[in-house]
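Hi R.,

Here's the input for the EPZ complex you asked about:
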Amino acid sequence: MGEHLLVRGGKILKGQVNISGSKNAILPIMAASLLSEKEIILNEVPDLEDINVMAEALKLLGAKVKREGKVLIIDGSGVSNYELPESISRRMRASNLVMGALLGRLHEARVAFPGGCAIGSRPMDLHIKGFKSLGYEISEGSGYLHGKEQHAQGKEIMLDVPSVGATENIMMAAALTPGYTIIRNAAREPEIVDLQNFINRMGARIKGAGLDTIRIDGVERLGGVEHTVIPDRIEAGTFMVAAAISCGDVWLENIVVEHLQPVISKLTEVGVEILPWSGGLRVVGKRNYRPTDIKTMPYPGFPTDMQAQMMSLLAAIPGTSVMVETIFENRFMHVQELRRMGADIKIEGRVAIIKGGHYEGANVESTDLRAGAALILAGLAARGETRISKLEHIDRGYEKIHEKFKALGADVERTSPD
Ligand code: EPZ
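And here is the predicted structure with EPZ in place:
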């Protein structure tokens, strides 16, 4: 049995928590560093498993990557290998983000199809559509996606759904593709704005990120840059729910309030008190909340990455709440685990009907990154002890999460393997 977390419920969380750099901003930015022949310096980079995997991928492609505390130094001058083996892409889907940068930089890329994961099949059809529109010949075979430049030229691309990864991958390929590219129905997530700002500071000419139409004017080459990534809005949202579910009083530092508006709105709806506080937020939990209904949507709608965490709170609120997951086809894996803790949740396809009740501590498993966080949150409110295993999922996206919870007064400990 591997390491697990022991959470003893009933503690009220109080104090300040400093939010780490955003995993979902850093991963595409690390991939984009392949576009540059100069040194890239990234600040505020948390120590996460997914980031280690992406660093391994960059090294396999010929880049030099070294970490000095929270600083990551990447030298892409030696990038010459265009093939990413499945040993990497099976470990992390987001490694497919190197494809666009390799096409732009080396005019060729061969990337093993990323494994699907617990939350869904995770296709790449929109990435492929974008690359083909730009004049790259894309072939699929023996689990690999192979792209080769024919006559790359900027084009107008319409995304069927506002895919975050497809928007990012196409943006990176287009940055070094001659001509003018337009991405319509682009995803609008803040991490895409951070990626645009990063690539522009390397010398690219991109505008419109954050809106649904992005324009890229391809350039010859890109230089080096030092960049500090945006804070992680999902980690921030997770701690906001922790304050709410424990009736606590938590002050969040190092956040961008604008990025948290959908979470602020829903927590306010259920009755949590959220106050601006010198650049951050103060979240004050209450004793009695109201149920509410939530539908996950592309940004600026309610983020799918906060769906599980919010469900943990709703399942502790008397009354009936409804949660609709519109982004991924299988992102209710945490429900069976919450049920072990006493949650009353009925699933009808993409709709979860949640009847509020009380949690009892239980032995549970984290099935994916955000589900693991949701189980910790339920454990905070549960009577007795909750034992959470399969922590590798949580370690992918949360830096020292149990230490941050402990510092807020939670009774959480990480035990070594039995
Ligand atoms: C990014 O994944 C995030 N990952 C996910 O966070 C997040 O849940 C997701 O965006 C949605 O916000 C990173 O940024 C590293 P998508 P991505 O392409 O890019 C469909 C976490 O917990 N689709 O926007 O893979 C797809 O099936 C992770 O940190 C196609 O149909 O998400 C899904 O239903 C989990 N064809 C929807 O779009 C494609 O070619 C959204 O996927 C691509 C996607």
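One thing worth noting: The chain has 14 helices and 24 strands.

Cheers,
M.
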